[in-house]
Amino acid sequence: MTLSPHCSAARNSAEPTVPSPAPSAPGLRDFYEDPAVPVASGEARTLRQARMLAEALGPVSAGRPAATVLDVGCGDGSAAAIAARELNGHRVVGVDWSQGALLRAAPRLSQVVRGELTDGGLPFASGSADAVLFSEVVEHLVDPDSALDELHRVLRPGGHLMLSTPNLAAWYNRGLLLAGVQPVFSEVSLRHIHGRPGSQVVGHLRLYTARALREFVAACGFEVVKVAGAPFHGVPRPLRTLDRMACRLPSLASILLVHARKV
């Protein structure tokens, strides 16, 4: 964010000099601007989510025009590009607040737009979108309620919300908590990982169980159609078969996928 310099009157030479304030510590925006920060849980989640949406939208045909799909929080556009291939014929628009992310996304997508979930909202008319992909975003938000309100606004009545987020109650997290270990996906610092497996800090502020996520989405004016599970690419290789099996019971899966419709 660029701040405009303030104009001030000339000082009397007898006045004491006031030192300039020290630069503020890097905030969340600076953290998320770093392209090295991981922004997605893996291609398996992206494919499952895109296929769920493709099934909900149906194919483009003479009687079914192309839908407008907003990928809100598209990052570098890699997940949106995979989704676009599954949503053959539908229009996918990448949306992010980060200019750096949009520059990286532009070569992968036919259209990218700068927009925010706060401070003025998304630059789309109310009811203008047929579907919203909201992948691996809600766990990073200070105010998820306002974000879901804004997504509800831009969706048409009956429009689709496809939301994904890590599962606090993933099968391995239940064991870790019993052992007194900080669960995977949770973070107590933006600088280092403390008290749990892993080494990458990704800036998670909120975590959901399947029950909490279902109740939260419903409270924001959506009807939950389906909750599904997806695996996490960060699971150690010897445990990946178990992780895929856990997806059969979404409440145990690594990643939660929610398909909801605007009421």
TrEMBL record:
Chain intervals with Polar residues compositional bias: 1-15
MF (Gene Ontology): methyltransferase activity
Region of interest called Disordered, as start-end residue ranges on this chain: 1-28
Gene3D superfamilies the record matches: Vaccinia Virus protein VP39
InterPro entries (alphabetical): SAM-dependent_MTases_sf
GO biological process, any: methylation
Record keyword Transferase present: yes
UniProt keyword Methyltransferase present: yes
This protein's UniProt keywords: Methyltransferase, Transferase
Domain of life: Bacteria
Protein name: Methyltransferase domain-containing protein
